[in-house]
Amino acid sequence: MTVRVGVGKSTHHQPRTAGEEAATAALAGLDGRAPDLVLVFATTGYDQAELLCGVRARTADAPLAGCSAEGVITQDGSDEGSHVVGVMVLASELVSFDVVGVGEVASDPGGKARELARAIAERSPAAKLVLLFVDGLTVPCSELLGALEAALPMPVALAGGTAGDALRFERTYQYLGAAVRSDAVVAVTVSGPIVADIAVSHGCDPVGAERQITRAGQGFVHEIAGRPAWSFLKDYLPDSAEGLDGLNVAYMCVAESLPAEAGSSYGEYIVRVPLRLDAASGALFFAGGLREGAKVRVAIRQHERVAVRAAASAESIRARHPDDKPLCVLQFDCAGRGRLLFAERTTEVVIDPVQRILGKDVPWLGLHTFGEIAQIGPRAFFHNYTVVLCALYREAGGP
Fold first, then answer.
1. Can you say whether residue 313 is alpha, beta or left, with left for phi > 0 and alpha for psi between -120 and 50 degrees?
2. Torsion angle of alpha carbons 137, 55, 335, 347, nearest 10°?
3. Where are the domains of the chain?
4. Which of 22, 130, 200, 209 could form a disulfide bond with 8, CB atoms 3.0-4.6 angstroms apart?
């Protein structure tokens, strides 16, 4: 086997114990081998540093990456509890992994993206996949991705998500080795005889006429159609809505037209969600980086389409590999597509059907994010209200 994979989970409230439990369960899948990569996703009820200490008590100095999450996804389904951690460990004789990161990204996303690209190119020049874990509240992710793609000297698939918290929109965390950071980007590179098949889908439909963003800058949209952005979007929320609490964010989004060259079965527009409100001015921060002059429409999520399109994404991956089972699957699923939309039925309606398509026995780890990263055609985009499935397969003809 090219890659051995194990997954573990814990809901213990003591952070060090939870980290040890999840890592121990994951390591059981490696048949005694030491891990070459450790991925960790955890909710923010934990002391994050203590949690990583618990994981590393079992995985030692193996390269570790990950981030905080609104919820964690495993083969058990979706868990959005205050204390839940998921760990995936991978080991391989032929596939290689590396982890790198940059901090203080919000003040210079372009420059930090170029710094990250240099590190990736120097350390992993033959990388086939780069997984990105990004601060979900501070980084203008579209700007970061554009600069990263332009600076990378080799073609590489990009996938990942932005870190979350418990829908408080206060602070998120990124993990690199033993370090817990904020306002950072952590990247995992995967090189060797491996194929990463990535699919992305949403469940939103636009309503109303297009309106132009009339003032924007540095990630903030100040005005839409000459009105304060919050005033414009508040028309689509209940009269009682006073700010960006978790429920409002879960239902409020806009749709921006995709460039013509990105046309695909994904659709004609990409979904954007505001994550911060400047109450004094009515400006909204979009990590998707909506630009001044762009035309947008309000978008509404459709419960049924969320589930149907997620299953269709999984079916598209399976159709491209009819005779193979994934070595593992990583799932990056928007926090607005979990219990805020489906209450306690998230696993039943969305997660389990997708897992049954790709294999209920496939090692599986994911998180509920504040935004997702995936390619549409040749370009990587920052998404909201989507699910990104990243399935790893052996390369055809490989060992």
1. alpha
2. 180
3. 3-200+305-394, 204-301
4. 22
The string of DSSP codes covering 320-332 is HSTT---SEEEEE
pLDDT at 134: 98
316-338 burial, b at 16+ Cβ within 10 Å, e below that, comes to ebbeebeeeebbbbbbbbbbbbb
Give the strand pairing for 157-162 and 127-134: parallel
Residues 6+ apart with CB under 8 A from 316: 199
Helix 48-59 with 15-27: angle, nearest 10 deg:
30
Cα gap 160→69, rounded to integer Å = 12
Structure tokens that stand for 373 in this block: 């990263």
Given pLDDT bands bounded at 50, 70 and 90, which one contains residue 240?
Answer: low
Calpha distance 15→50 (Å, rounded): 6
Closest-CA residue to 133 (of 75, 200, 182): 182
